[in-house]
Amino acid sequence: MSVLEVSNLSKRFGSLVAVRDISLTVENGELRAVIGPNGAGKTTFFNLLSGFFAPSAGSIAFDGRDITGVPAHRRVGLGMARTFQITEIFPELTVFENIRIATEVAADYRLRPWLNRAEAADLRRRIEETLALVALSGKTDRLVGELAHGDQRAAEIAMALALKPRLLLLDEPTAGMGDQETYEITQLIRRLHKDGKLTIVLIEHDMRVVFHLADRITVLDQGSFLAEGTPREIAANEAVQSAYLGKAA
Amino acid sequence: MLQLIFFNITNGLIIGAFYALMAIGLSLILNLSGVINFAHGGFLVIGGYLAYTLTPYLGFWGALLVAPFLTAIIGFVVERLLIRRLYGRDPLYSLLLTFGLAFIIEDGTRQIWGAQGLPVSIPPALASPLSYEFFFITGYRMFMVAMVAVVVGLLFVLLRYTRIGVRIRAGTLDLETVAALGVNVRALRSLNFAVGIFLAGLAGVLASGQLGLEPTMGDGLLMPSFIAIIVGGVGSLTGTLLGGLLIGVASGLTSVFFPSASEAIIYVMMAIVLLVRPRGLFGEEGMMT
Amino acid sequence: MTSEQWKRLAVLLVIWGGLIFAPYWMPLFGGYTALGSRVLVLGLGAMAVNFLLGFTGVLSFGHAAWFGLGAYGCGLALKFVALSTPLGLLAGTLVGGIAGAILGALLVRRRGIYFAMVTIAFGQVFYYIAFQWSSLTGGDDGLRGFARQPLDFKLFRIDLLHNDVYFYYFVLICFAAVVAIMAFVLRSPFGRTMIAIRENQRRARFLGIPIELHIWIAFTLSCFFMAFAGALYALVNNFADPRMLHYSLSGDFVIMAVMGGMRAFWGPLLGAVIFVVLQDYISSVTVNWMSFIGILIVLIVMFFPRGVLGLLRQRSTA
Predict the structure, then answer these.
(1) Bridge-based pairing state of the strands A4-13 and A16-26
(2) Using a CB-CB distance cutoff of 8 angstroms, which residues of chain C are in contact with residue B104?
């Protein structure tokens, strides 16, 4: 059973059609990159997947279960975690506190008035594990708002990981980053994919990152499906090249 | 009985027109700038008192014309100096600011014009009723409704057909895009605020002819304006207009059957709207969330 | 203990020391014990509003409604049900808290200023009812004819009515109990979700937190705290009146929280002290205290939005 199955998904804002009739399937353990020129509807597509808003038509199935009408926070509970194009974190809290909130929700503690000693210790252990995964262990007491851009992204990814997701949606994780930070984030995502065996869907503009990481690539253009295939197939695809003609690759 | 009902509906429409005038000004400011203008009642009072002070020099009609403009200028200055600095911040601060301003205005008018209620005289031509049958429709009340209709009509025309009007409407929906298109958003907001305050000032002049003048009169008219907006639908000026009329009529009708509840009914209507159709009668989905 | 912990302990000692010995040092500055009771209760109200505003990031500008309901509930219980102070407190707290819980469910889908707007309007509903239903509430004159009853512990009685000092300590104990509950909730996993919602609602939602539910819970808790404060206030004055429900009181509570510092736990109490002392002093000197408060509000909003404690915090980290 595939992790994600999208059928004929569309989203209309008034008379503007942002996403038109998109279908795709993501298998367990796959890393799928979604690319396309600006305005292709990639972030809108993510917003539909994560439940930010409801589709105008079509359906989404997650692990075989129809989640089209399921609200965003519940999709998280089902195993879908996402990051945003503009990093969404808790800026005036420390790294530790950021991850703690995510971990507490994942552990179903969010309505609890207190934790006993064993639970608190276990929580701490889990937080430290997550921080180690993204190499932020040395910065636990820093305010996230004061970290470098790359570290903030890593913290956001850590929060998503703390939720123990089945599917990780990353919206332009390397946006606004220099070469060094891009390299580090790319390595992180690779580790999560290969070692952690996470299923990941990734929006990216940086083609080096895309070709380095992706198992398969889906190309969108002006809200519609354009092409899908392995990196090699996409690189050779003429329609894709002309869609990108004049745009940076 | 029928005549009684008719009497009260007409009364209700007149009051409703008044609520609508206040509420539309409030709504304009709320929609474009995201500011709940607690001082709106205060500007109403300023308008009334300014008209009172100007009447000896300009006569009733002169004062009616000039006072709202003066009030609008005061509003413009306030927006420019104070409110403008708070736009980027949490809406809490602009709310608190207008809240504080309301205090200052109330005490200020008390200081300048005294705490006693002041009588306001209207031209004899307007004071007499239309006819024996319709004794309750005095010329002044007709005049009030006519003024409201004209001004609101002008406003809608302005919003629909002039460039500024279109920009205000667009700004209500998506301020970022409007700014990106090169419109001077700050000036737009200031102007929009001034228009809203103009309406409040006008309401004050009109009200004073009916109710006299008192430093605290703005307070009692602020709440119905809020409710008109909630009932009519946030984000929709037409909705606010109709909301104002609706609650006015409801209030009028209720006073036939349950006189003591005629004020309460507007709160009940608000509660019903919030339960059944939270976005308001004409509000757009997603405006309040 | 770390220096951070020493500092916190010192602050707590100062605060509680000041509060416990208030009847003794207040007269030195021209104060009197009953004023202290008043400050404590209003401070509790400000802290209740701040539970929602400073710690969940949700602005309610109609919170005086629950305060007033608590006051009327307490007064009505004392007047018509039984001559028992604890019962009055309980009745007031339940009336205000439950009303808040029910209405909160209606309001919770709104956001930002629209939420504030609806809370203002709803608050006024209760003001209007208190005003109109004069057969029950005494209308504009307020609810009278009740007084705080002595506490009867079978072996001895504590006269709360005539002894200001005893009453002050009673209020202080009540205050301490509620404040302890507030602190406890804020330190809990649930409390952390409140802070998450304040910091970044979108991120909180996409971590799996059901925002509406958590806001409703925080709202309800703050209504119960508020109602308790209102009930205490009825006991302070032996009197309840519609102004305790009016949105201008709601505004006062918000001002106290902002003035003292929204992000600090004790900020609203400090704000209440400043506000009450200023109001007491200014209205004895001039008739224009409204202008004064108005100007103060404008100044704070424009130049000191972080309040006293916020300012101190900035200084210490700079």
Answers:
(1) antiparallel
(2) 290-291, 294-295, 298
